[in-house]
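## retry 2 of 3
previous attempt timed out at serialization; input unchanged, resubmitting
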Amino acid sequence: MINEIDKQILMILQQNARTSNAELARQVGLVPSAVLERVRKLEERGIIEGYSVRLNARKLGLGLVAFVFVRTDDYVREDKAAGQLAAIPEVLEVHHVAGEDCFLVKVRAEDTEQLGRILREKIATIKSVRSTRTTIVLNTSKETRELPLELEPPEGGSNDD
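## retry succeeded, writing output
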């Protein structure tokens, strides 16, 4: 488990992974060496998996988002199909799901024409893929990888404001 200071550090880094160690220390009220040690331990434990940059997909010409439900024949070796789907550069996420379909795949493309090519030339050519159903996103209200980390109220404090 992680403590409240670790949660604060994680919340700050989720907002801006480029926050300096000195700024982290200032915000959580510790000396920089203590914060550096905490971050190192969070990395060692795999809680912090890495640091990345968020790109604006629309400004890079990848404004179309689609979710593709994929049904496969190969129930025994679904890991192979998942790996093949994940290897497609335009595929951002692959989720093995319960229900009629086997996978839910998030795809980014330039336009519907490129999406059609991805479906026909990349997804449909995977040997075990039996069928796909595609939903195109019209508008996105929220898209994040930030996890909800609740901070405990201070001792003697209350959330009843």
